[in-house]
Specification:
about 15% strand; 14 strands; alpha/beta; 17 helices
Length: about 425
């Protein structure tokens, strides 16, 4: 099982598994990232800047879109399938006895792989939550929390303060932390946790441990626009992730580590941001997959993410926009539906993501309840249909689920 179906809270399994493979988490210099949305983009932005500095950078993210090897990369190159198979085969007896989750196994494999390949630094994204997430065995150089929104409420709590407490669980004593987006309901949670960790303070001028709120660093925001304004990620929501990543990198370069200091410069940060997808292999963030008609996909998959996707769809001036949309059944579908754009130019085709957790196309159509929309179960068939209906100057958008985006990338790469 993958995703929330395979969720196993607690670190006991992970610690046993890490011990079995040599405790690789104790030998990694790392940046640890949590948050409801944007943690993947932020992780890739930070990794790209570090790569552009000449470092050998491990990157562990989830979920994958096409192949699970995407989750474990070094300087943008995914782990080889042979290395995945070798890890499973070498540790098969222990894995059979322990019965770890998919994510616990992937975490141990990634950390062991990064140590084996002698990365200079690893950028690690949490899977679900923070406090009890498998990746939280790390003692990193820096922690980053992008934002807090409603997702996985069955595990993390049904209020923003409860969710924030879980995410804040990655904050460690003596380890600097950057908070990407603040909210009146969550600010005090982070301040309270920062006091517990002894990192409450302000200012980037010293190397003392501190906590920074990136969206309140006004002077840094102005500097970021001057120094690293170009970015390969074109979603309007990326402005938040860019600011978070920029502040994190400013903090990181002043942290003493095994190699004295991280060798970050204005040039390397600008280069990393400008070529983040090329450097790291990031896919599915307002990505143009095809032209005439333009086919775009985006991984926004909950209300926090869809509000930005919807805003960007509304800003498109193309004559007609064909929205191929599907979701899984553990997301806030009702709320997401109310955020989607409406009007004569928007044509909805609901489809079924390729997972047992999917809401069916017909379910989505019934929940939409408005005239003019249709349901087509197969995404491949939905794309074929949309391409027969759309004009060359129209846009076809695919989104609502990571599974759907992964399918679209695979389908379009095969030139349907």
């Amino acid at each position: 099982m993958i995703g929330s179906d395979a969720y196993k809270p607690g670190l006991a399994n992970t610690l046993r598994l890490m011990a079995h493979v040599g405790n690789p988490h104790e030998h990694l210099q790392a940046v640890h990232i949590a948050g409801t949305n944007g943690k993947g983009s932020t992780a890739h932005l930070i990794a790209a800047a570090l790569q552009a500095s000449g470092l050998r950078v491990g990157l562990f993210t989830s979920p994958h879109l096409v192949s699970l090897t995407e989750r474990v990369r070094i300087n943008g190159v995914p782990i080889a399938e042979e290395d995945v198979a070798a890890f499973v085969e070498t540790n098969k007896k222990f894995l059979d006895e322990l019965q770890p989750s998919f994510f616990e196994t992937m975490t141990a494999m990634a950390f062991a792989y990064f140590v084996q390949k002698e990365v200079d630094i690893a950028v690690i994204e949490t899977g679900l939550g923070g406090r009890l997430d498998s990746t939280n065995v790390l003692h990193p150089l820096l922690t980053v929390i992008t934002n807090i929104g409603f997702d996985h409420t069955e595990f993390l709590g049904n209020t923003l303060p409860k969710i924030a407490r879980e995410k804040a669980g990655i904050m460690k004593a003596g380890v600097p932390c950057v908070i990407g987006e603040t909210h009146p309901q969550t600010m005090n949670i982070f301040i309270e946790r920062a006091r517990e960790c002894g990192i409450l303070g302000n200012g980037l001028e010293t190397t003392d441990c501190r906590i920074w709120f990136a969206d309140q660093c006004g002077y840094l925001g102005k500097r970021r626009h001057q120094e690293a304004s170009e970015c390969e990620l074109k979603g309007i929501y990326q402005s938040h992730n860019l600011q978070t990543a920029y502040v994190a990198l400013q903090v990181l370069k002043n942290i003493p580590c095994e190699s004295n200091h991280i060798p970050l410069s204005r040039t390397s940060i600008a280069e990393g941001f400008a070529h983040v997808c090329q450097l790291t292999g990031l896919r599915g963030r307002w990505e143009i997959l095809s032209e005439r008609p333009t086919i775009i996909c985006d991984t926004g998959h909950n209300s926090h993410g869809i509000q930005y996707v919807s805003r960007q769809l509304k800003e498109l001036d193309n004559p007609d926009i064909w929205i191929l949309f599907g979701m899984v059944n553990d997301k806030d579908t009702d709320v997401v539906m109310r955020l989607l754009p409406e009007g004569e130019k928007y044509h909805y085709i609901f489809t079924t993501p390729d997972t047992h957790r999917a809401r069916t196309a017909q379910e989505m159509l019934s929940m939409w309840g408005k005239e003019g929309a249709i349901a087509i179960d197969s995404l491949a068939d939905a794309i074929r249909y949309a391409k027969t209906q759309a004009k060359a100057e129209d846009v076809i958008f695919v989104g609502g689920s990571n599974y759907l985006v992964g399918e679209a990338i695979k389908i379009l790469s095969e030139k349907i």
